[in-house]
Amino acid sequence: MLPSFFESVVQLIVRTSTDLPPDVRAAMKVARAAEPEGTRSSQALTIIAQNIDLAVDTEGAICQDTGMPTFEVKTPVVANQIWMRQQIREAVAEATRRGKLRPNSVDSITGENSGDNLGPGTPIIHFEQWQRNAIEIKLILKGGGCENTNAQYALPVELPHLGRADRTLDGVRKCILHAVWNAQGKGCAPGAVGVCVGGDRTSGYIHAKEQLFRTLDDIMATVNDLDIGTMGFGGMVTLIGCKIGALNRLPASFFVSVAYDCWAFRRLGVELNASSGAIEHWLYRDPSHPIIPMLDQAGFTRTGKEVALDAPLTDEAVRSLKVGDVVMISGRMFTGRDAVHSYLMKHDPPVDLRGAVLYHCGPVVVKEGDNWRVTAAGPTTSIREEPYQGEIIKRYGVRVVIGKGGMGAKTLAALKEHGAVYLNAIGGAAQFYARTIKQVDGVSLLEFGTPEAMWHLTVEDFPAIVTMDAHGNSLHKDIEQDSGQHLEAIGTSR
Ligand code: SF4
């Protein structure tokens, strides 16, 4: 068999998780240059740029959500695909052991995490034969936040702010605009979309995702007029790429499928020698060209207006904050996402949450001797906790909730009533935030798996932006309304 195949696949996974490809870097540099200095989007892009550099320097995961590993493999006609599939699965488990992939494969009925990213349907591996005597493997790691913002439209359809999308190219255009508008900051904008026009419901989504394997070289115009901006903070750049493919369809169906990917657009590929399995060359990146850093500086760029917060917090400290404030948090912080929120609805918390900071985060954590170390710790999408958050704030006295993408009306009302704030951290900035964690003090509910456990952390100068305050204001609500008006103007401009 191919003696180097396994190690080549491990290398592909590690590099994909830790080193953003040059076309995405270039698109993010353009995005950064477009945002005026000192704006919220510009500050967020600076953190993202640092995060990209830190990840490659330390071979750490760019984002803690390493997503659903999806492999597209092309093999010569005689290749043994059964053996290759097994090797790829073992390589995925090995990369997970090395902390380059977060354990992300969860039994859909019991909720149990397999711990090694293996399980029914994970990873996804598609094989195709070709006439060449070489093996090509492409990999994309697409996280849950952006996966949840995918959309599929059956035309004709009435769309909010845009009117009817007919079975025409203009109808397709409206669907793309609507999908990007609907994603707001939840998919960690600026992102890129792969689009399939036609096919059936299944093939449409697959083909849309396949478009994300194309090199980003687009000039975006109309969609950036939405002014959603980085993380949905408002700004000049909302999308860094749009790739469109088409499949034939049934006469009765006209689907437009949109696969949204975030700025942490992790996809790479390799071509392997068909006899040894050794890497002959990389796709999307040329190793003879050195990696050009995104930034020539380190650390958070302070404007002098940042508000220092020491946790746990008082009612007074929280009520003095307003939307738009940039805060630097130090002290104790607890992580909690889906499993923890569900648990807290039925049980008392394992720690005292009065005045506490609750961080929506599923970190990558490795055990070193008797101690734990967090190697990647960006925020997860908060809206999933909307059904629970207000009640948890009320019952246990949480004062600060940190996540990304914002929350809804129930949480906003609870913030006002009980004196709490919602802070938006920069989605995907997993390496940047991991460095603000000075110590892991403990862990509760580890039986939920490492991403879902409640980690007790001590942080120092953890930056975030107040996007929902204790006075009923929500930046997310405002941006959604404003961008909706822009969408209406764009939709009627043709
Ligand atoms: S950057 Fe955001 S959307 Fe993308 S994988 Fe990370 S958390 Fe999810």
Q: How would you sum up this structure, described in words?
A:
The protein has helices at residues 5-18, 22-34, 40-58, 81-97, 144-147, 169-183, 201-211, 315-319, 338-344, 386-396, 409-418, 430-434, 475-491, and strands spanning 68-75, 124-129, 134-142, 151-154, 157-159, 163-165, 191-198, 239-247, 255-261, 266-273, 279-283, 307-311, 326-335, 357-359, 364-368, 371-376, 400-403, 421-424, 437-444, 454-468. It has 494 residues and is α/β, with parallel strands linked by helices. The strands form 5 sheets. Strands 2-1-3-10-11 form a 5-stranded mixed beta sheet. A 5-stranded mixed barrel has the order 13-14-17-18-20. The protein has a 4-stranded mixed beta sheet with strand order 4-9-7-8. Helix 1 (5-18) packs across helix 4, helix 2 packs antiparallel against helix 3 (40-58) and helix 10 (386-396) runs parallel beside helix 11 (409-418). The longest helix is centred in the N-terminal third of the chain and has 19 residues, at 40-58. It is globular. It starts with a helix and ends with a helix. The site of iron/sulfur cluster has 14 residues, from helix 5.
Instruction: State the separation between the terminal residues, measured CA to CA.
Output: 58 Å
**How do the strands line up in the largest sheet?**
2-1-3-10-11
What's the helix count? 13
Rg calculated over all Cα atoms:
22 Å
Q: Which distinct ligands sit in these coordinates?
A: iron/sulfur cluster
Largest sheet: 5 strands, mixed
* Inertia-based shape: globular
Helix content: 25-40%
The fraction of residues in strands falls at 25-35%
